[in-house]
Write a structure and sequence with these properties.
Number of strands: 13
Distance between the termini: 15 Å
Largest sheet: 5 strands, mixed
Shape: globular
CATH topology of the largest domain: Peroxisomal Thiolase, Chain A, domain 1
Number of domains: 2
Radius of gyration: 19 Å
CATH architecture of the largest domain: 3-Layer(aba) Sandwich
Strand content: 15-25%
Structural class: alpha/beta
Helix content: 25-40%
CATH class of the largest domain: Alpha Beta
Bound molecules: oxa(dethia)-CoA
CATH superfamily of the largest domain: Thiolase/Chalcone synthase
Number of helices: 11
Strand order of the largest sheet: 1-7-6-4-5
Length: 324
Amino acid sequence: MTGRIIGLGSFLPEKILTNDDLAQFVETNDEWIRERTGITQRHISDPVNEKTSIMACKAAVMAVKDAGIDPHDIDLIVTASTTPDLVFPSLSCTVQEAVGATEECGCFDVNSACPGWVAAFNAAESFIESGNAGLVLVVGAECPSNFLDWTDRGICILFGDGAGAAVLKASDGKRNEFIMRTSCIRGRCLRCENARQPYRRDEEGFEKATTFNMNGREVFRFAVTEVPKIITDLSAKYNFSLDDVDMFVLHQANARIIEATSKKLKIPIEKFPMNIQYTGNTSSASIPILMKELKDSGRLKSGMKLVMASFGAGLTWDANYIEF
Ligand code: UT7
């Protein structure tokens, strides 16, 4: 058995922050942001009514409805987030209550930064393949806006808030294949310290370290090298041709990274859908938000072969080959 996506949901906060809005309080401009990243706007959540758990629940409820399932039948909920509003219990527990799953439904979270949803998807797949779950809800929800240094133009322009979710059902058919990779040695270029370390409170630079910190050029170089490579390795390992893939659904971090991947793989850019223009980088939520949009627009159809790939802090990077 393999996990087939039978329902999708997503949520984007109401408030929009455009590049021009950003230029009001940090030294940047619309042209620079658009040319270097492809982003024109991002959504910023309301701290009370759209916090991470609320966004996660909204996307999850939508996915369950879209799947047309009885929530009592859900065996497992796996939620990816690096920016939850609770340290514990896990975000998945909050989602369990919101969707109306029973106490027979297991819940846990995955903290794997931007590739978190893909890692959660792969955990769900493994539960399904081993026969330990038949119906799994996989959620990605992030509120990077709470963790940004809004005076640092090198990073605050990149991110947006949002959530996405999918229901996976045990089905016959092509197995979902994946590769997951990590390099902690190279991971210093993308970090965020936990703010709750009382003994470090007076340490110089500690407060800044509790926001997202990034060496953008280094992360960019890593992404344009490793993403095409892991996709090529996936096709070699599982013996399929990249020409037969209908769509490459990549983490929406920077349009130039996606364009470079298309070029390196010699696959037309039309096969690399993007919504980063108006979402920014929503971290682990980016792939399910994009998938939901593709399905709603009719571009993503049943039976299509997809490669999903994501990358981020760790450094971590993953690629999957699935049939929708
Ligand atoms: O989810 C995964 C995590 N992150 C990523 O995927 C990010 C990967 N990296 C990137 O997307 C790019 O490196 C950035 C978009 C962050 C930066 O683009 P870049 O082309 O690598 O620019 P840079 O950092 O090399 O900076 C070039 C110039 C610098 O000025 P000087 O030194 O040439 O005078 C920066 O100070 O652009 C300046 N700059 C800006 N100017 C206007 C940096 N940020 C901004 C800004 N507005 N927001």
